[in-house]
Amino acid sequence: MEQTTAGNAELPVFEQVRYDEPIPNVARVTMARPDARNAQGLQMTYELNAAFDHAAQDDNIKVIILAGDGPHFSAGHDLGGDRGKTWRDFPVIGTWGGFDLGGAEGRYAREKEIYLEMTERWRNLPKPMIAQVQGKCIAGGLMLAWCCDLIVAGRDAQFRDPTLEMGVCGAEFFMHPWEIGVRQAKEWLFTSDWLSADDAKALGMVNRVVPEEELEEFTLNLAAQIARKPAFALKATKEAINHVQDVQGRRNAMMHVFSLHQLCHANNQMQWQLPVHPNGVSPAFRESLKKRDEAAKKQTG
Ligand code: ZN
Questions:
Q1: CA of 234 to the centre of ligand 1 (A)
Q2: Which of 171, 219, 223, 300 is 20 to 30 A from 29 via CA?
């Protein structure tokens, strides 16, 4: 498919996210931290949010693609800090507040804002969104794929949520049972195993599996096919299907699981002085978590 260049001066420019319009009526938002396997920290989170907002408000855009640079779609959440930036540097979407507080309340506030409600916001964005997934897609990375309406995966793509071995009951945006079914979700989480692209498709989590070298082209063609449909009917259809899932109890279930998730973090903190079980993370990761906690304590005095 012939692609247009992103020479349009009106396209927004970000540091960790790239925004382009590769074909008419389609916006593509690309996570551009391949060296960090597109790990999602604060900056990327709010850049993604701004990019999605731009696409949502642009009446010429009918479909949004979410992609990732490099060999892997997303390694999940980046807990390594944001180079000195604090919450004050970002346009928060919620009104809960208390992000800098210690204890369970600070973590609750932070995870509610950037994981639960932010992902919910993206899931409810009215225009059809397509995740273009290659390589590994882990924990928080799953949330990025799941908030999209369609998932196109490269044949080598693999999906994993290792949060249970980290002492937590699944990633914060708890779509697992909705994505692959109750029994399979239990096995997947209990074992922390990888799910292949083909298995994810068989279980209904992935729409299409294509060779890696055809992934971009296939996703663009799919987006183009959808973009030929009437914009309002696309929005109404998405809203209708999302609503069906919501009256089935998705949102209520997710709020309950989020409380359990926070209880798990609090329990780990009491037992291990870390928000996660020490056996489930690398020594380097344990150190970065400790540093982050110490920084939070300093801020609260
Ligand atoms: Zn968490």
A1: 33
A2: 171
